[in-house]
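Following the same procedure, sequence and fold were stored together, as reproduced here:

>
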Amino acid sequence: MNEDIQAIEENIAHWQPRLNSLFNSLKEAVIGQEKMIEGLVIGLISGGHILLEGLPGLAKTRTVTRLAQSLDLHFSRIQFTPDMLPADLVGTQVFNPKEASFSAEKGPLFAQIVLADEINRAPAKVQAALLEVMQEKQITLAKTTYPLKPPFFVLATQNPIEQEGTYPLPEAQIDRFMLKLKVPYPTKAEERKILDLVENFRVPEPVQPVLNAKEILEMGRDMDQIYLDPKIKDYIVDLVQATRSPAKYGMAHLESLIEIGASPRASITLAIAARAKAFLAGKGYITPEMVKSIAPAVLRHRILLSYEAEAEEMDSDDLIRTLLATVPIP
């Protein structure tokens, strides 16, 4: 087994310089926000969609744009508004009177990286159209189905305030996002560096891509080879099961706080995200600490809290911290 893990680590070691170049490119444009940057790269190499939640001005759009510039992929940005229609995303059929025929006018979802800015500003039909494409990775126009060119992943942002006139994503749809990343305010030292960055780089220099589509897909295949011990699998299942039946894991006081626990998709996603963490660390195996570090981003949008939890001003992150501190580590 040790020889197999060593072979895996040797196989993924040659990706580390490319990953370092990608991280350096992102950190040149964004001060701090290490967890957000890491989460975006995890989504990139594992083929998962990411939901970013944070207040305005915290560099969510800037970070995604810089990520797109650092990759040799087709990038599309969509600003969601309440008057949008599904055709504004997927496209439509256009009639050509000279040839008396219809042709496909492809929408902005025909890309590889899609930034869905303020996704909760769009009505339900538009959200449903986007989330269907995220799930199926194909678009149908007038009975013709167009597979999207891999890799394809969506990075959506939403503002946790100013909810008037918005359309919150239903739990069944938000579950399709691999990770939900919360974007915090910068520290005082980071904000000081942000001022220097703005002063020194009024006209940004062109960014050279450091990874292409073929390399990203190869990274994903190498990541899939990382060893996942049966005990770690049991730990992942225990964490997810504890969100549904906390009393079985010695947390009976949480029963009344959870309306709906995480779905089986959470177990699958947690295993994939932990593999991505190991890949970024250059390791051929997954540790419990890797699972614990990525668990909040995987679980926070998959747990529906009760009114009692809201009355106690408890959010899903508070509950996840209790789970991680209580469920036995292998």
